[in-house]
Specification:
The strands form four sheets. The chain has a six-stranded mixed beta sheet with strand order 1-2-6-3-7-14, with helices on both faces. Strands 10-11-9-12 form a four-stranded antiparallel beta sheet, with helices on one face. It has a three-stranded antiparallel beta sheet with strand order 4-5-15. Helices cover 33% and strands 22% of the residues. The chain has two domains: 248 residues, Aminopeptidase (3-Layer(aba) Sandwich); 126 residues, Alpha-Beta Plaits. The two termini are 27 Å apart. The longest helix has 22 residues. Helix 1 packs across helix 3 and helix 6 packs antiparallel against helix 7. The protein is α/β, with parallel strands linked by helices. Strand 1 and strand 2 form a beta hairpin. Keywords: Amino-acid biosynthesis, Arginine biosynthesis, Cobalt, Cytoplasm, Hydrolase, Metal-binding, Zinc. Its cofactor is Zn(2+).
Amino acid sequence: MTLTPKEMLAKLVSFNTESQRSNLELIHFCRDYLASLGVESTLVPSEDGEKANLYATVGPKVEGGVVLSGHTDVVPVAGQDWTSDPWTLTERDGKLYGRGACDMKGFDAIALALVPEMLKAPLKRPVHIALSYDEEVGCLGARILVKAMAAAGIKPAAVIVGEPSMMQVVTGHKGGTRMRTTVKGHAVHSSRVDVGVPAVMIAGKLIEWHNQTMAENKARASNENPFEPPYSTLHVGVVQGGTAVNITAEHCVFSHEVRVVPGDEGVDFVGRYKARVAEIEAEMKAIAPETGITVEITSATPPLAPEQDGAAEALSRRLTGDNGSHVVAYGTEGGLFQGEGWSTVVCGPGDIAQAHQPDEFITIAQLEAGTAFVRGLIADLSR
């Protein structure tokens, strides 16, 4: 079976791999496609078996190859106004529309579609294709995928994470820690709020801690920091709680995150936050002992730090001709690969502004640029 990158993208988009769903249908298609070309792949399943990562090696099993990394999950389309079916790749005015077309099945499609060219090339070093699950909800799959690849003896010289960067070479991004805080209060009539423990108002104190801490980060930010914004940010995105305006809320839950610049540590902010939680919880229990606050870490993804004379950066700049300096605020799986000691950059087709949007698209020009990049990599590894 041979498919062009556009044909492969149409196939990948046709699989609904929203993060709350299984990705196994897509992964099995990739496994079977590679097998039809004589390439063996390895599946690394999730603990419950509902999802799986996949990795495969094309070329000689030696050190010094390059990993092409992409995720297979996409964000939901619910509540979005799409002009065309999000699960059918649709071409309009030089753009290819479909959920995941940009983020990031476009890069996945290129890597898979060019396997026949890799097989025909006199590769001296291998190409490793790595496809993960659940990147969008905390880079969950990549955590076990990277470990499995390392345990299998894979030792690449470089990792290219193909998140949409308009084929610019991104050498750094922020890390992220996501949390869920649950406040259990004591409900009374609001006229006697003095003897109640209002969970929503308690949550408000903790939410305000995020604002205050971010303001402190902003105040000490360096003008030389290339990130936008140039400091670690804290954000609360979802709040749920309360039953009526005249009842002190018994429960409140909110989801929040911290995105750290390289040099800051997410665990430090978590520690400071938990210290504030402990102070407030003591005040709550003094009124009603059954009350309390729980904090769950739902995901933690390390930043990608710019490398001194990094092999992945040198390779990607050579192939793209990009000599600019690029860092981004969004996160990727890159920090997990880098944490294994593998030189890593982000470089892929498409504009990140299209990610997660209704009528998500990748331009044909960007798909072609990504294809030229991987073809250049094949030639480089064949020298």
